[in-house]
Amino acid sequence: MKAILVDQLGGPEVMRYGDIETPHPHQGHVLVRTAAIGVNFVDVYQRSGVYKTTRRPLIPGSEAAGRIEEVGAGVTAFAVGDRVAYAGVPGSYAEFVVAPAAQIVRIPDVVSFEMAAALMLQGMTAHYLAESTFPLHSGDVALVHAGAGGVGLLLTQLAKARGATVITTVSTDEKAVLSKEAGADHVIRYTDQDFAALARDFTNGAGVHVVYDSVGKTTFDKSLDSLRPRGMMVLFGGSSGQVPPFDVQTLNQKGSLFLTRPSLASYIADRAELEWRAGDILGSAARGALKVRIGHTYPLAEAAQAHRDLESRKTTGKILLIP
């Protein structure tokens, strides 16, 4: 099969499109013929070495949708031909992937492979952020960084559905339009404006209840400054780089703030929770209640270019690779 292979960690140039033996499923696993692959910043962390792995060659990626090609021993809940999707299964940048049956979910008939691949990781991330990490309620004010990104657009919609006021940050006028279309109440061009000062202006000086920050290094300090006393800082990514070592006494000084660094894996570790989150997100998309923007698609062979565009923040919405 064809796959993206990484022999040594580094920049996008270390990814090569090559051949590797097609795997077969073992006990409790299925073989999925990949139809669409989600590209996420976690893939960049894997490729560059921010997230440590010893597998060589490394096949990046952890999110995709496709059709079951083969079923391993002991699998009774799924059959050959089933349309499925997953997040958190290593090695998705490939034509075939062996996935644990416990980590895949069925795709509703009206949801395309592309939409499913666009929703599993980023959709369930938006879901756990709004539903569980800081459960939003009517009257809450949330600051969402990267408002025109895949998570940002989905999180904005979920937050508005729960009655929250949403402030987003973006880098361009085009992204501002997309964020507004997703329902943002206020959109800040953070490259030209002080988002912490504006967040306080929009809340009559009080500050926001929660900041959802996937940018990291360049936004972290001002994100804390945007919060009201006892507000929560949710750091769930680092597209600008990882946050340096941090003095937790700062949380006390800025008003008894809360800080958490969640990841999706902790919010779908239980099968029932996975089915709930995936069911909510895929079901909302199937009903048209959740709008999914697939901003860019690339052939699998052009994964390096997809990473370059993602890291340079040239993209909006979801990026997909198509085998």
Secondary structure: elements and pairs:
Blueprint: E1 2-6, E2 15-19, E3 29-39, H1 41-48, E4 63-71, E5 83-87, E6 96-100, E7 104-106, H2 113-133, E8 141-144, H3 150-161, E9 165-170, H4 173-181, E10 186-189, H5 195-202, E11 208-213, H6 220-225, E12 227-235, H7 249-253, E13 258-260, H8 264-267, H9 271-287, E14 294-299, H10 303-311, E15 318-322
Parallel strand pairs: 8-9, 8-11, 9-10, 11-12, 12-13, 14-15
Antiparallel strand pairs: 1-2, 3-4, 3-6, 3-15, 4-5, 5-7
Your description of this structure?
This protein has 323 residues and is of the alpha/beta class. The protein has two domains: 2-120 and 268-322, Alpha-Beta Complex (Quinone Oxidoreductase, Chain A, domain 1); 137-261, Rossmann fold (3-Layer(aba) Sandwich). 31% of the residues lie in helices and 27% in strands. The chain has ten helices and 15 strands. The protein has helices at residues 41-48, 113-133, 150-161, 173-181, 195-202, 220-225, 249-253, 264-267, 271-287, 303-311, and strands at 2-6, 15-19, 29-39, 63-71, 83-87, 96-100, 104-106, 141-144, 165-170, 186-189, 208-213, 227-235, 258-260, 294-299, 318-322. The strands form three sheets. Strands 3, 4, 5, 6, 7, 14 and 15 form a seven-stranded mixed β-sheet that branches. Strand 9 (165-170), helix 4 and strand 10 (186-189) form a beta-alpha-beta unit. Helix 2 (113-133) crosses helix 3 and helix 2 (113-133) crosses helix 9.
